[in-house]
Amino acid sequence: MDIPGAVATLATAVGVVKDLREIDIGLDKAEMKARLAELISSLADVKMALVEVQEDARAKDAEIARLKAGFAIKAETIKFEGFSMLAFEDGTPRGMPFCPRCETMDGNLIHLVDARGNDCQCPQCKSIYASVPRYLWER
After folding, report:
1. What is the CA radius of gyration of the chain?
2. Are 64 and 56 in contact (CB under 8 A)?
3. Could you give the CA distance from residue 25 to residue 1 in angstroms, rounded to a whole number?
4. φ/ψ (deg, to 5) at 51
5. DSSP H or E segment with residue 62
6. Domain ranges of the chain
7. What tens-digit pLDDT sequence spans the chain (139 residues)?
8. Taking the CB of residue 74, how many other CB atoms lie within 10 A of it?
9. How many CB atoms are closer than 10 A to CB 9?
């Protein structure tokens, strides 16, 4: 159920409450129990919808935080020999480059790791790159 559905269900529950308030004392217990059951059911639906909305909001907040962190790292990168890399304060390359495939296709900055010979491999997508520039992480 989405937010408009939750609001509609809540409106129904409020309508039932108004009806209950206006019920004549002489109304039989069966009618009263039926109205209360309808109210409880409507409120349970609203509660479930709000839990779903809360979960969706948390997931979106986590995705926003992940994207912000990615953009912060991206701002610190330089292009060097066709690869995106971190840089020292003076602009010289630092460490291992990021996987071009993951950066382009997924928007993820995944550092390449050493593989056989002079090759490097992405631990995420398993792409292999030859003649990859490697630099020190610290000075």
Report:
1. 29
2. no
3. 36
4. -65, -45
5. helix 29-75
6. 3-73, 76-129
7. 667 777 777 777 777 777 766 666 666 777 777 877 887 888 888 888 888 888 998 999 998 998 887 777 777 788 888 898 998 888 889 899 999 999 888 888 899 999 888 889 999 999 999 888 888 888 7
8. 13
9. 20
